[in-house]
Amino acid sequence: MDSISTNVLITELENEMPVFFETNKVDRSILLPTIRECVARLGTKFYEVKDFTAEIKGYKVTLPKDFYRIQEVYICVGKEVVRPDDRRGIMEVEQYYDEVDVCDHFTLLTDDCGKPTRLVQHLPMTSFSWNELYIPAIERDVPCDFKERPNCDISISVKNGELISNKNVGTVFIKYLVDPASKGQFEIPDEPFLRKWIKAEMRVKVFQFLYDNMEPDVAERLMASKQSAGIAELQARSLYKHNEPDVFYSIRNHLARRYNARSKPLRNIRPLR
Question: What global pTM score does this model have?
Fold first, then answer.
């Protein structure tokens, strides 16, 4: 979903109500609290969503500057298993000695040149490596909407713009909500109903300001603008039906299916003891 700056909406409102702004009866600064209230009433439902991937180094990862709240988080950890390669069989390697211990004298052979040697049997080993996808435990004070049960002993917290892990291993994947004021201005989804509603609320603020300052002939406009804003808010809230939380779990399902498809050949492998 594309986003738009609320400064654009303020400019549009100034063009629609030039008589009040050009004569300095109203200043755009009075609209900022109204915008902030509208954004708060929208809730996190309409916040922009981004994803971020980084390797954990020194038990931490620096989060993006526009980070606001976690939607999903996974940690990918590399795994390796070493086992004998039965397909290649036992190999014999001829090992030479420059100096021979007295105890080894009777166990060694000599080659055509009389140099001490011994046949050493060697069992080839094969290494299998892959990545495991884990759901970490999340500390209670972390701003997060992800409620999946952890499946590992990795835990994370967020402090001073950094994600802190108790394990110095793996790559972290985060799907997060963007702070709407991270660019120095509020960002909202570029949806017609939302734009219409926020502009309607700003219009109410303008007329309320003029009414409080004894501007004549604005009382009826104030009442009409409040009614229009109420209708616009209902239309804006109808967007909730078109943006279900399930979309936030699409990446989780995709990664899980991909891992299951690739891990089947390795399920019967056990590490050497």
Answer: 0.59
Domain ranges of the chain: 1-48+180-242, 90-123
**What value, to the nearest 5°, has the Cα angle with vertex 134 and ends 129 and 140?**
155
Please give the sequence-ordered ranges of beta strands (E in DSSP) within the chain, or none if there are none. Answer: 3-5, 49-55, 60-62, 67-84, 91-96, 109-110, 116-122, 125-134, 137-138, 155-159, 162-165, 171-178, 187-189
Instruction: Give me the pLDDT at residue 129, please.
Output: 82
DSSP state of 224: H
- Around Cβ 163, how many Cβ atoms within 10 Å? 23
Express each pLDDT in 45-88 by its tens digit: 777 889 999 999 999 999 999 999 999 999 998 888 887 777 76
∠264-78-144 over CA atoms, to 5°?
A: 100
Among 51, 3, 82, 253, which residue's Cα sits nearest to residue 171? 51
CB 58 within 8 A of CB 170: no
Residues of the chain falling short of pLDDT 50: 102, 105-106, 243-249, 251, 259, 262-273
Query: How far is 253 from 145, CA to CA, in rounded Å?
Result: 17
Residue type, 227: Q
74 C-beta neighbours (distance < 10 Å), count: 21
* Residue 186 and residue 175 in contact, taking contact as beta carbons nearer than 8 Å: no
Q: Is the dihedral of CA 233, 236, 238, 240 positive or negative?
A: negative
24: left (phi over 0), alpha (psi -120 to 50) or beta: left
Vertex 217: Cα angle to 212 and 220 (nearest 5)? 85
